[in-house]
């Protein structure tokens, strides 16, 4: 910045302001960054008595010092304000780190143990710190002078009291001195807990006034007071040799009533144990020593039996013990599987950090966590960079990013699981031994019960003598909504549930009854009479046809149960659809008749009206009767219902046919109309008799059908509500399954179209020259088995071969075979004779994520890395039928469920399976509860003694990623390929 003489003061002020602003910004950024890192290392931090730290004005935080440079960060978290601290001067000489300390407002403290020549400069540091407090800031100080591992408060020095009084002299108004206890669950352990206890503050000005302004006396007494108050908030054993007793006592405290689900349970147990030990050794030492002896004896007995002192499952009964450990073992095995990736990818940097951090100079465990944190950041950063560099040279970018994202997640799982094994395995071993030695277990249980009973009495006595002070715990209070809000939310939720249930149980209207019926009264009588005669003949044919169809349905179901038919067979699949389509056609005729003669009351003369009424009611009764028979016939057959609900676009069969018919039966309005019609039928019967509409054909058949329908439908009264419930459940499950299917299809499409590597700039191993050599060998009806390397879907499909297709020939071959006039082929011929976007002709039918489509040799074979060709040994007539069947499936969606039961959606091998079914029956295999046919199973079937005579080897192009070439191979190599893994580092 350039300044003129006249503006030098202004320029200096601007420079100071900018410098101050930059310093404040860098300090705030550094503070946030450091706190975030520490919170990541210690995710469970609880602050008790946080309200005791003022949120404005000068504050001096005096804390114990168990964890080196982590402790200052904990003070900042507890204070919820920027905290400036006095840190040992050598830290400020560390490159970069010293700059960070200055940016955070730290003040160097010069100790005699560091450099005796610099101790005089400590007075300057104290003055600087006092000045900051006078400006209203928060200062932190560790009166012990150095960090340590002992469960004791070390000698509290006079630095804190000296600093407080000096701040008062510098003009600090309302200065509060707040004792803070820092308690770490296991400070060297990653992801462990921290408990911060804030004690009662001291008003510095009042303290000085109480000592009549005598600073020397006030400083001595204030140091003693801080020592007392710090001991009340830290983990302090009056005598260090009691540490082994503390460890044994902690293991028994949960049995005496402490909450085991508390996230900081271990820290609370430690504090309670320390307070109790100190109290009883001060008030009744003989009694305390006797109780301590029993605790030690019990601990020694447990260790002699191989039982860890903290084995709280010891008190469980044997049956509960087995169940508890079985569940724990399940969690451990699951965690091991999930964390294996993290273990493998982090083992090298983890061992390096653990090894090096031990050799970094540190007085015990107090700086171990800090050393690991500071050392781990660059080491793990460098390791992740190395992994990114190595992976990017082998995999595509999205694999690299996914790998790096999953690494830390899996590493945390691995670390947590390793800790579980470390603590649980000795317990598993010990408990197994005790289960085999019930006498020893009973003795230990008896000993434990005696010790726990005595400790319970001591604990009760201790809590009555020394009640725990009430403190506010930061970030633990949860919002509890008022009663009126709870009631309102509950009422709205209940109303929504009732409305939704009523909507699900609503009546579903029947087809053809939604539109206005024709006005048959406007027709001339002669024309209406001729029309009714024709409809009467049709109605007789429908009644007779339904009777025969019912027998055929029952016979078909009998054959299914006997194993003579199967829904997985193409012929039987088509047969059940023909029967269903025939039933729907009959039903349509009946419903159209009901609709057509709705306005029969307007017809005149009376004889014609009665005839129209009879037609109308007969059709309605028969439609309801046979619909009920249809629903009842399959109500307990899940597979049949699933097949009847399946769509078939080739025959315009919609999805949910069975559910729709069942829903119509449950329509209360229709049921009431039918019952009202039955009453009207009985009243009108004499009129029909008088008009001669009861005797002779077709009227005898009509009345017999009405009476039979009345008898059958009367039995349905108890079923109607179940029909409604079944329809509602079908709606819900259909929506859920539909959503799941759409989600799974999206994921499957993404996986199926995703490559994890793209060697050779994405070019396949099958070259154009190899493809052209293969082309003349192909004949219509050949089965193509294909593989494309490096696709992510290969990892989720069984076997080396993931895809199959059917070569149906070129349009010229189709015409030469004389099957171009087959209706199944003719409706697709216009599309098939066209060319794709690259100008190549279609010759293959395959199912891909877009559905069952025509593809070209260049796309299907030319983009593969390996391909095998097998030829079915069929007659020319059979091959024509295979090709026609394949054409018949074109346009169907892809089956992302890979389920061969359904035929409305097809997976790639299902095109081959259904085209050849009945001529070559490939054996289906069960995968995840579904019958399916992986492409590799076709190879295995050909290689078996059963399938060998049915299929002939034509060609095998074997791609090898190691050499980057594709070679011609023989039948032996093809049979061997069925045992190759689906995905390796080389393919």
Automatic annotation (TrEMBL):
Keyword presence, Iron: no
A single MF term (Gene Ontology): glycerone-phosphate O-acyltransferase activity
InterPro entries (UniProt xref): GPAT/DAPAT (IPR052744), Papain-like_cys_pep_sf (IPR038765), Peptidase_C92 (IPR024453), Plipid/glycerol_acylTrfase (IPR002123)
Alphabetical UniProt keywords: Membrane, Transmembrane, Transmembrane helix
Superkingdom assignment: Bacteria
Cross-referenced SMART domains: PlsC
Residues annotated as transmembrane: 329-352, 373-391, 397-415, 483-505
Domain Phospholipid/glycerol acyltransferase: 59-185
BP-aspect Gene Ontology terms: phospholipid biosynthetic process
Keyword Protein biosynthesis: no
Protein name in the entry: Phospholipid/glycerol acyltransferase domain-containing protein
Source organism per UniProt: Rariglobus hedericola
Lineage per the UniProt record: Bacteria, Pseudomonadati, Verrucomicrobiota, Opitutia, Opitutales
């Amino acid at each position: 910045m350039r300044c003129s003489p006249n503006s030098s003061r202004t320029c200096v002020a601007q420079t100071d302001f900018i410098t101050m602003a930059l310093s404040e910004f860098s300090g705030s950024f550094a503070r946030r960054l450091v706190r975030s890192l520490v919170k990541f290392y210690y995710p469970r931090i609880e602050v008790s008595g946080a309200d005791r730290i003022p949120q404005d004005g000068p504050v001096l935080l005096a804390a114990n010092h168990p964890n080196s440079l982590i402790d200052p960060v904990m003070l900042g978290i507890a204070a919820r304000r920027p905290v400036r601290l006095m840190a040992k001067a050598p830290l400020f000489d560390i490159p970069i780190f010293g700059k960070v300390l200055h940016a955070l407002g730290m003040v160097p403290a010069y100790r005699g143990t560091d450099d005796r020549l610099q101790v005089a400069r400590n007075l300057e540091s104290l003055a600087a710190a006092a000045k900051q407090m006078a400006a209203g800031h928060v200062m932190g100080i560790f009166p012990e002078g150095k960090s340590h591992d002992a469960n004791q408060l070390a000698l509290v020095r006079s630095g804190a009291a000296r600093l407080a009084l000096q701040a008062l002299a510098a003009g600090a108004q309302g200065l509060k001195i707040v004792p803070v206890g820092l308690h770490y669950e296991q400070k060297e352990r990653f992801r462990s807990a921290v408990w911060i206890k804030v004690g009662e503050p001291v008003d510095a000005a009042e303290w000085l006034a109480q000592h009549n302004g005598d600073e020397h006396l006030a400083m001595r007494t204030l140091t003693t007071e801080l020592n007392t108050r710090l001991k009340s908030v830290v983990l302090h054993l009056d005598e260090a040799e009691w540490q082994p007793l503390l460890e044994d006592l902690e293991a028994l405290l949960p049995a005496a009533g402490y909450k085991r689900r508390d996230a900081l349970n271990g820290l609370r147990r430690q504090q309670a144990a320390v307070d109790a030990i100190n109290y009883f050794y001060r008030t009744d030492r003989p009694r305390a020593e006797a109780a301590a002896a029993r605790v030690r004896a019990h601990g020694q007995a447990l260790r002699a039996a191989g039982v860890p002192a903290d084995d709280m499952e010891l008190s469980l009964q044997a049956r509960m013990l087995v169940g508890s450990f079985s569940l724990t073992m399940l969690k451990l095995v699951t965690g091991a599987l999930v964390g294996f990736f993290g273990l493998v990818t982090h083992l090298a940097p983890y061992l390096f950090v653990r090894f090096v951090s031990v050799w970094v100079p540190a007085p015990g465990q107090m700086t171990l966590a800090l050393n690991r944190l500071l050392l781990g950041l660059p080491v793990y950063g460098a390791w992740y960079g190395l992994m990114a560099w190595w992976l990017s040279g082998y995999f595509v970018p999205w694999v690299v990013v996914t790998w790096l994202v999953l690494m830390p997640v899996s590493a945390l799982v691995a670390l947590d699981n390793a800790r579980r094994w470390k603590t649980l395995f000795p317990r598993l071993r010990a408990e197994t031994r005790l289960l085999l030695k019930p006498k020893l277990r009973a003795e230990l249980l008896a000993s434990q019960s005696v010790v726990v009973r005595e400790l319970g009495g001591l604990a009760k006595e201790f809590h009555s003598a020394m009640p725990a002070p009430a403190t506010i715990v930061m970030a633990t209070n949860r919002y509890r909504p008022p009663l009126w809000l709870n009631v309102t939310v509950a009422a709205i939720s209940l109303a929504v549930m009732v409305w939704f249930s009523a909507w699900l149980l609503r009546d579903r209207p029947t087809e053809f009854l939604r539109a206005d019926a024709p006005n048959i009264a406007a027709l001339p009588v002669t024309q209406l009479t001729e029309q009714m005669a024709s409809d009467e003949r049709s109605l007789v044919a429908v009644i007779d046809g339904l009777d025969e169809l019912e027998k055929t349905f029952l016979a078909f179901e009998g054959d299914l149960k006997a194993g003579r038919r199967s829904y997985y067979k193409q012929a039987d699949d088509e047969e059940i659809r023909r029967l269903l389509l025939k039933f729907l056609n009959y039903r349509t005729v009946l419903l159209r008749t009901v609709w057509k003669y709705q306005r029969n009351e307007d017809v005149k003369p009376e004889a014609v009206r009665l005839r129209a009424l009879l037609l109308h009611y007969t059709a309605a009764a028969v439609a309801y009767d046979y619909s009920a028979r249809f629903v009842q016939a399959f109500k307990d057959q899940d597979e049949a219902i699933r097949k009847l609900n399946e769509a078939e676009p080739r025959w315009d069969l919609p999805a949910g046919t069975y559910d729709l018919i069942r829903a119509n039966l449950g329509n209360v309005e229709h049921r009431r109309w039918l019952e009202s019609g039955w009453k009207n039928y009985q009243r009108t019967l004499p009129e029909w008799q008088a008009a001669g509409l009861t005797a002779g054909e077709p009227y005898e058949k009509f009345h017999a059908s009405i009476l039979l329908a009345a008898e059958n439908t009367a039995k349905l009264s108890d079923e109607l509500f179940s029909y409604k419930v079944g329809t509602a459940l079908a709606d819900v499950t259909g929506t859920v399954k539909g959503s799941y299917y759409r989600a799974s299809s999206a994921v499957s499409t993404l996986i199926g179209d995703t490559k994890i590597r793209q060697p050779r700039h994405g070019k396949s191993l099958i070259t154009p020259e190899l493809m052209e050599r293969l082309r003349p060998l192909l004949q219509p009806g050949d089965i193509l088995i294909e593989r494309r390397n490096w696709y992510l879907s290969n990892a989720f499909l069984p076997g080396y071969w993931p895809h199959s297709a059917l070569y149906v020939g070129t349009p010229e071959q189709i015409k030469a075979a004389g099957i171009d006039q087959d209706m199944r082929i003719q409706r697709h011929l216009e599309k098939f004779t066209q060319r794709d976007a690259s100008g190549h002709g279609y010759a293959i039918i395959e199912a891909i994520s877009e559905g069952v489509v025509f593809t070209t040799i260049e796309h299907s074979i030319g983009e593969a890395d390996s391909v095998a060709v097998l030829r079915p040994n069929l007659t020319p007539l059979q091959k024509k039928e295979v090709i026609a069947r394949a054409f018949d499936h074109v346009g169907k969606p892809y089956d992302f469920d890979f389920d061969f039961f359904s035929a409305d959606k097809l997976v790639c091998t299902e095109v081959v399976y259904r085209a050849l079914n009945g001529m070559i029956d490939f054996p289906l295999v069960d995968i995840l509860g579904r019958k399916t046919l992986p492409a590799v199973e076709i190879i295995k079937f050909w290689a078996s003694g059963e399938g060998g005579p049915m299929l002939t080897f034509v060609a095998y192009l074997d791609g090898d990623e190691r050499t980057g070439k594709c070679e011609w191979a023989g039948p032996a190599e093809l049979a061997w390929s069925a045992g190759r893994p689906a995905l390796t580092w080389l393919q």
